[in-house]
Design a protein that fits this description.
DAHP1/KDSA; eight-stranded parallel β-barrel; 272 residues; two-stranded antiparallel ribbon; KDO8P_synthase; TIM Barrel; 8 helices; alpha/beta; Aldolase_TIM
Length: 272
């Protein structure tokens, strides 16, 4: 994957990690713009290449009454407005083959959810849009097996692909990050560490996913020290009242300190 090929991506020559960050789901225009503005300010100061993240629809829900979105076109237009307002690229996840062409009209990066990364038709549809494809490693897959998902993208004529590590199932209700997987998967494509989803505690009996946001800094620092090319962080100014994944999101007020520390670690690593 060539970062310079991503439209509007800044600071690509800074030798820093790149960042995909934003709310789990697009809840409305004001919240999306508010989060984007804060993250843009921080990443510009630290010279971090930044891609705004927001799901236009949430399809993988624990219960039928869980929040799924505000409407596809409405949410996608908000993502487009974020991009135009702050001159930054955006990423969203897709769940069905028909989503690929639709979402590609509005965003710069298409993300394949972890549970769906083996769905060949979906991966190929994303690849054929010509957009960057971010493949989330399945919670049930080995790092080595992700080479086949990458090959589906490249065999479709698209070399703009990266892999995101988001933890592996550890029992029924917890995730585990095996940092050995980062250099392994870097043999196939650049690797992003999804810090917040790696700290999910899924399958809770109440039907709402739990999390360990207190461990975000620990996992993020370990990822940068291990040499991850990028980080994925879901963040919100009011996680307790977020409509999706609030239990494992980073409070937006803590983001600047975290990214400042991570940038310092990155500088130390690349000078060794």
């Amino acid at each position: 994957m060539n970062l310079d090929a991503i439209p509007k991506l800044k600071h690509t020559n800074s030798n820093n990690f790149f960042l995909l960050a934003g709310p789990c789901a697009i809840e409305g225009e004001d919240m999306a713009l508010r989060i984007a503005e804060k993250v843009v300010t921080i990443t510009n100061r630290l010279e971090i290449p930044y891609i705004f993240k927001g799901s236009f629809r949430k399809a993988n829900r624990s219960r039928i009454d869980s929040f799924t979105g505000i409407g596809d076109e409405k949410a996608l237009k908000i993502l487009q407005k974020v991009s135009e307002t702050f001159d930054i690229p955006t990423v969203t996840d897709i769940h069905e083959s028909n989503d690929a062409a639709m979402a590609a009209e509005y965003v710069d990066v298409l993300q394949i959810p972890a549970f769906l990364v083996r769905q060949t038709d979906l991966v190929v549809a994303a690849a054929k849009t010509g957009k960057v494809v971010n493949l989330k490693k399945g919670q049930f897959m080995s790092p080595e097996s992700m080479q086949h998902a990458v090959k589906k993208v490249t065999d479709s004529g698209n070399n703009q692909v990266c892999i995101t590590e988001r933890g592996t199932m550890y029992g029924y209700q917890d995730m585990l990050v095996d940092f050995r997987g980062i250099p392994t998967m870097q043999e196939y494509a650049p690797v992003v560490l999804d810090v917040t989803h790696s700290l999910q505690q899924p399958n809770q009996t109440i039907g709402v996913t739990g999390g360990r946001p207190d461990m975000i800094s620990t996992i993020a620092r370990a990822g940068i020290a291990t040499g991850a090319d990028g980080l994925f962080i879901e963040t919100h100014f009011d996680p307790a009242n977020a409509k999706s994944d609030g239990a494992n999101m980073l409070d937006l007020s803590h983001l600047e300190k975290l990214l400042t520390n991570l940038t310092a670690i990155r500088k130390t690593i690349i000078t060794l």
